[in-house]
Amino acid sequence: MEKLIAQFLRLYLMPGMAPPDDRVRPVTLVSGDDLTRAIVIDFARGRHGAPDQHWTELCAVANRLQEAYGFPAPAVSITGASSFRLWLSLEEPVPLGDARRFLSMLRDEHFPELDLQATTEVELPPCLNAQTGKWAAFIHPGMGASFAEEAGLEMAPPLTAQLAFLEGLESIGKAQFFDALVSMKQGEAPQATAPAAIEPPPKEGLLLKDATLEDIVRHLHAMNIEPTFRHLLRPD
Q1: What is the rounded distance in angstroms from the CA atom of residue 74 to the CA atom of residue 58?
Q2: For 86-134, what is each residue's pLDDT tens digit?
Q3: CATH code of the domain in which 61 resides
Q4: Half-sphere exposure of residue 190, counting CA atoms within 13 Å on the CB side?
Q5: Minimum mean pLDDT among 18-32, 41-55, 107-121: which range?
Q6: The total number of structural domains that make up the chain
Q7: Can you give the residue range of the structural domain that contains 87?
Q8: pTM (2 decimals)?
Q9: Which of 14, 213, 226, 236 could bridge to 31 as Cys pair (CB 3.0-4.6 Å)?
């Protein structure tokens, strides 16, 4: 658990913000002076539209950020309820207002049909969702579609696999973040396609909407993780 907490501190939490001991209570991502190192976006399942629409929307946003602005691959989690979360890590703290402005401009430039909001308090996976009794967890992005109707696990995921999903992640540099803001303000980035039309991208690191079993197994083996049914185990 200490190694997992170290990754949260490296990627998402402001200095001095330790996760709660019970791992159920939410932790704030914003400091007392309104700075943050994380942009966490919720993608909730809607009452209308395709059952996996919230997943294809997450893929569209994540891939656009990487393709248009060169951002490193983000983390993806399930909430234990009916939502996915996209986790963007910032190398240096930025004002919360700039993080919100970033999402507002991203929506205006590429995704006017989406309501992109930054979540400022989150439960840190893996943790039990008190309302559903299911586990929130970080997942391999290629497995997202399998959680579209029920974004939670029946059992706690292995900590070694959760750690593996975070260890290889990189943060968005401060200059890179503000360059993206400038690009969106000037309208220089290419226009996004509709989420429903997105094809699995060939670029390494991008999220795969419809990854095959072979794609997932090959990627996990490269990370020294042995996959099992909806659980990811690292061999001893």
Answers
A1: 11
A2: 999 999 999 999 999 999 999 999 999 999 999 999 999 999 998 899 9
A3: 3.30.70.3300
A4: 11
A5: 18-32
A6: 1
A7: 2-233
A8: 0.80
A9: 14
